[in-house]
Amino acid sequence: MGDEEIEVLKGTSTMATVLPGAAFFLNLPYPPVRKMLEAGLPVAIASDYNPGSSPSGNMSLMIALACIKMKMTPEEAINAATINTAYTLGLLESYGSITRNKVASVFITKPMPSYSFLPYSFGDQLVDRVILNGKEITN
Question: For residue 136, which phi and psi values (nearest 5 degrees)?
Answer without folding.
Answer: -70, 135
